[in-house]
Structures are given as C-alpha cells and as structure tokens.
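Dear V.,

Thank you for sending over the compound details. I've combined the ligand you provided, manganese (II) ion, with the protein sequence from our construct and run the structure prediction for the complex. I'm sharing the raw inputs here so there's no ambiguity about protonation or stereochemistry in the SMILES, which I know was a concern on your side last time.
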Amino acid sequence: MAIYCMSDIHGEYEKYMQMLNLIELSDDDTIYVLGDVIDRGSGSIDVLMDMMRRPNVIPLIGNHEYMALSCLRVLSQEITEESIAGLSEDVITGFLEWQNVGGQPTIDEYHKLCYTDKQDVIEYLGEFELYKEVECVGKTYVLVHAGLDNFAADRPLDDYDLHEMIFNVPDYFFTYYPDKYLVTGHSPTFNIDDNPNPGKIYRANNHIAIDCGSGLGGKLGCICLDTGEEYYV
Ligand SMILES: [Mn+2]
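Below is the predicted structure of the protein with manganese (II) ion bound, written out as structure tokens.
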C-alpha cells in the first residue's frame, strides 16, 4: 500500500524496469510519475506502453509530453495534399522545438508502431494529469512536474494553468507551503546551488526534487512517501 514518486525517466526503459523491480512494486502500491517520461533515451514508447498497462502507475504531464502531444497528433494523420498544406508555421515550429529538446528518438519509435498503438499512445498522453495532491502517513504532498509559477499561498492548485506548472524551475530556497511538501521533477538536482548531494534526491525547505538526471547520464531516482526511503538505478 506504499506510495512512490519518480520523474524524468526520459526514455530510459531499462532503468525504469530496474526501478520497478528494486522497489518491488506490487498491485497495492501506487507510483506517481511526474512527467518527462519521454525523449532523449531510445525507450520512450516502451516505457509508455508499459505504464499504460499498469493501473497503479499514475502519470502527470511534463513539458516533453506537452510538446510531443501536438506533434504526434499531426504524425498520426494520413498524409494528403490537404494535410500537408494545412501544416501551419506553429506546427512546424513545434516540431523543431521538440526535436531541439530530444524528441527525435521518440518520433523514430513512434513511426514503428502499428496504427492502433499510435492511437493508444496519443490517447494515453492526453490522459496525463497536471498535478496531484496526496496524503501519506499524515503528511500532504503536492506533486507537479516543474513548479508553481506566480505562486500565492492562498491560490488554489486548480487555478494554475499548464504553463505555470510544467516549464519553470521552482525556487528551492523558498518554502511554498509550511504544511505541505512540493514534489517536483523537471530540473536535475545536480543543478541546484549548494546541493550537498548532487544527482540524488534533494530535500530541503519542504521541497522534494526527484529528477536525478536520467537521460542525461544521471540516475533514475524514486522516493517512497511512506518511509522516505530513496532508491536509485
Ligand atoms: Mn521537464
């Protein structure tokens, strides 16, 4: 019945599978994946196909999924003269931006899927939620991919829009909520100033930052909210 969080798998299918084995994930456990499942590594679609078969894996959207979704919808369309003529500058810019942040391996994988799997992947990405607030052993955790832009203590979580939650790094030296922990991925913890454990999970000021740099040569990290235990692959 444990609750786990991990983030920023970035196409590292082997690390993802090793992590599920390491934590001995059971059907009673829940694991929240805080976005950026895809891109950079070569196993993005493999991770997604596994996640979608597991009802106890709850995905949140990251900026990479957001960028991918509109592009994959275009790629899934039949190519006709009209569909090519209909490609707006925005769509083309979207593809270039996605490729710039490591989207190409995901596109390559996606092209190898059958039609049904392509539709399933798009549908699944469309189901990713923006944030979650969870209680565990008397503590409250706000789970979100990147952070809370334009933060105000009295601002309800459902008031933040997608751009405020998935693109910008939070202030790790600021305590957002005195009575809640903010759990985020998005930015590898080796980028946090004065981090005593670069590349490991960062815990200070009611932050739990869990992107340990998978897909960038770092580890995949995972934390059990019940016990506080950290796991690394
Ligand atoms: Mn991200």
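A first observation: Helices lie at 13-22, 44-51, 63-75, 81-85, 89-100, 104-111, 115-126, 162-166.

Warm regards,
I. M.
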